[in-house]
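Dear colleagues,

As part of the handover before I leave the project, I'm documenting each prediction I ran so the next person doesn't have to rerun anything. This entry is a single chain, and its sequence is reproduced below.
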Amino acid sequence: MSLPSDSMLDVLRAIGEPTRLRIVALLRHGELTVSDFTDILGQSQPRISRHLRLLADAGVVDKHREGSWVFFHGVETGPIAELVAGLLLGLDDHDPAVAGDLDRLHVVRQRRSAAAQEYFAGIAARWDEERSLHADDDEVDRAIAAIVGTGHRSLLDVGTGTGRMLQLLGRGVARVVGLDTSHSMLAVARANLDRAEVRGVDLRQGDVHRPPFPPDSFDLVVVHQVLHFLDDPARALREMARLLTPGGRLLIVDLAPHGLEFLRSEHAHRRLGFRADTVCGWLDQCELDVAAVRSLAPPASTDGVERLTVQMWMAVDRREPAAATTTATTTATTAATTAVAG
């Protein structure tokens, strides 16, 4: 891809200033807020905001809002992204100014991680109680990785929570997005991704019933342990199906029907699991074909309390995929079917 000469000059002028070059260099390592930049660069908020505005006007950076917070990130696709990436290849990370910024970035991330983990510590007991009732997380993760396979180029994790699915499925994927309604949970996900050194993930605050993305945006959408919190899960699935590219895939991971009422009264579950035929019916209404269904039995109960069965549904958009993605989609679907057969 190429740029008109005037656009290229706009980009070069925007980056060709010491502070703005440092900003763009920092954004290689993930999204940051204005307050993060003020801490790292030691400059005032108005000055940082002005630099960011100039970079945004030139198309070098983009932003998204998360409650009262605004996160900035470098553009990820297109000719400007390619131009900027090429320019930054020549930047020496051992340069004193760049190295100092990276050291201060590490401190900012540590502080952000501590705040996020303090929030999560307050709800960890609830999470641990739920997880103890179904198959071990590692077993669930292995089953998810097997049913998903490889070959996806864009991933949306709906209700991303701690970012676990982003770490499991997002490495090496060109575009990775996590969506959650909770700013606090996104802070936890951001800290976990930083710690796991998973870069380039776009975390967005938004409603599952009104996702902030256009149709045909992702070739893989994951809805992991989300539907049982929703009043209208069928409506949410229609929205998720709308986001799939032709031939794209939707993975649902949730619970089989159970009778643990305390999960509704104490853990905000709206639904006590789902029948397989109910979910398959919703997927059919979304014009998705069910390619695979799998159940993971829970551990044996030793205390008389009912245990939870984890269920997975892999569905495929009925529209014919583009020629360039046919092979990847076929390979991934075959892997899903093989995983279920096993």
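Residues 96-131 form the longest helix (36 residues). Strands lie at 61-66, 69-74, 154-158, 175-180, 201-205, 218-224, 244-255, 288-296, 310-317.

All the best with the project,
I.
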